[in-house]
Amino acid sequence: MRGFFTSPKISAMHNTKPTLKPQSPNFSSGPCAKRPGYDVSALQLDTLGRSHRSALGKKALAACCTETARILGLPEGYRVAVVPGSDTGAIEMAMWSLLGARGVDVLEWESFSAGWVTDIVKQLKLPNTKVIKADYGDITELTQVNFDNDVVFVWNGTTSGVKVPNGDWIPADRAGLTICDATSAVFAMDMPWDKLDVVTYSWQKVLGGEGGHGMLILSPRAVERIEAYSPPWPMPKVFRMKSAGKLNEGLFKGETINTPSMLCVADYLDALKWADSIGGVHGAGGTVARSEANLKVIEDFVATHDWISFLAKDKSTRSNTSVCLTLKATEDQVKKMAKLLDGEAVAYDIGAYKDAPAGLRIWCGATVEQADLMALMPWLSWAYAQVLEEK
Fold first, then answer.
1. Which domain holds residue 233?
2. 21 and 44: one domain?
3. Residue 258 CB: number of other CB atoms within 10 A?
4. Residue spans of alpha helices (H) in 32-119
C-alpha cells in the first residue's frame, strides 16, 4: 500500500475534498463500532423480560463465559465471569479481592493505569507499593518489575496507544500474581494466558458490544489466592467472590452478582458468534489479523506524510487498536480538524482522550473495516490543509 497516499507536502491536491467516504464513520475508542453487517433485529431476544436467574437467563449468561473461554483458547482451569461496572468494575473487583497479601508493583503510562495507581495508593493505601511510571508515548522499564510482588498493569494503554510488546518480560515462576487490564487488547492482541493470573475487559471494545458489563478471567493461582487470603478492609457486595472461604463457583457459571442487561447479553453473544465465524482470534481472517491490517493502513499513511506521527515512540509498543497520533499543529487546530471530519460525517469521536496530548485517536479494532480506514486517510490530509489555511 506504500505510495497509495499523497506526498507529505501540503499542495492544492489536498484542498480538493475527497469524494469517497467510509461506509461507517464510527472510529470511537469506546463504545466502538459494531461488527460488520450488524443488525439489532437479528439478536436472539427470547431472554428479554425474563429473569436472569431463570434457566434461560442463566444459560445465556453461562454461554458468555464458556464461549469466551473457548474462542480465546483459555488454558484448562481458567474461570470466566460476567461482572458489573464494565472493565473498571472488573479490575477493581480483582484488586480489592486479591491485593494486600504481598507487595505491589503497579505500572503507569497513561490515564487508566494512573487510575489503578490511585486505587492502590490512595484508596487501598497499600504500604509496600512501587509505582513505575512513564510519560504518554513511552512505556515503563519492564525490567524494573519485581515479580515477587503482585503486578498490576494495562496490556494496552487505550488513551496513549502504547502496549506491552509481548509477555516475555513476565517469568513463568513468578511468586506474585499478574493483574492485567486488557480491555482494548483482548481479541485483538496475542495474550500469553499462562503469564496472566487476572485479565479484565469490557464488551464495548474489540467486539463492539454494549457497555456496563465487565469480564473477569482468573487463573488457578488467582483462585488459590482468593480462597487463602481475606483482605482486612470491608468488601462491597459487588466485589465479593467467595463465601465461607471458598470461591463462589456460581459466579463463573452465569450466576451474576447483580442484574445484567439481557439485551446487552444477547448483543455480546452475537459478537462472539461473529468473531468465531471469521476465524476466531488467531485465524487468517480473525480478530487479531483484522486489527493488525487496520493498523497497517495508518502506518502506511504516516510513513508518507511528515506532519503526522504515532504517539507511541517505539514501533514494538504501538497499539493496533487505539491508535494515537500527534500532528504538526496547535491543540486548537487539531480540535478544529476533528470537528471538521465529524461535520463531514467521515470520522466521529476521534479526538485524543482528554488527559492525553493533543492529537487524534482512531480505533482500529476488529469491527472496523480496512476499506473504511483507507477511505478516511485522504480526508485527514484534506482536513489538515483546511485548518492550516485558516487565518
1. 40-277
2. no
3. 11
4. 55-72, 86-98, 111-118
pLDDT digits (tens, 9 = 90+) for 159-201: 999 999 999 999 999 999 999 999 999 999 999 999 999 999 9
Query: Is there a domain that residue 132 lies in?
Result: yes
Residues 384 and 345 in one domain: yes
Each residue's pLDDT tens digit, 23-63:
999 999 999 999 999 999 999 999 999 999 999 999 999 99
Crossing angle between the packed helical segments 55-72 and 262-277, to the nearest 10 degrees: 30
Domain boundary among 277, 307, 337: 277
Indicate the helix (H) or strand (E) that contains 213: strand 213-218
Q: Are 1 and 181 in contact (CB under 8 A)?
A: no
The answer to the question of residue 4 being in a domain is no
Q: Are residues 213 and 353 in the same domain?
A: no
CA separation, residue 153 to residues 87, 156, 317 (Å): 13, 9, 14
The arrangement of strands across the sheet holding 150-154 comes to: 79-84, 213-218, 198-202, 178-181, 150-154, 104-108, 129-133
- Residue that is written with C-alpha cell 482522550 in the block: 353
Alpha-carbon dihedral sign for residues 343, 346, 348, 354: negative
Number of domains observed in the structure of the chain? 2
In a domain, 346, yes or no: yes
CA dist., res. 223 & res. 27, Å (int): 37
CATH number assigned to the domain comprising residue 369: 3.90.1150.10
Domain boundary among 231, 260, 277: 277
Q: Do the Cβ atoms of 92 and 239 come closer than 8 Å?
A: yes
CA-to-CA distance for 353 and 339, rounded, in angstroms? 14
Is it true that the peptide bond before 8 is cis, omega within 30 degrees of 0?
Answer: no
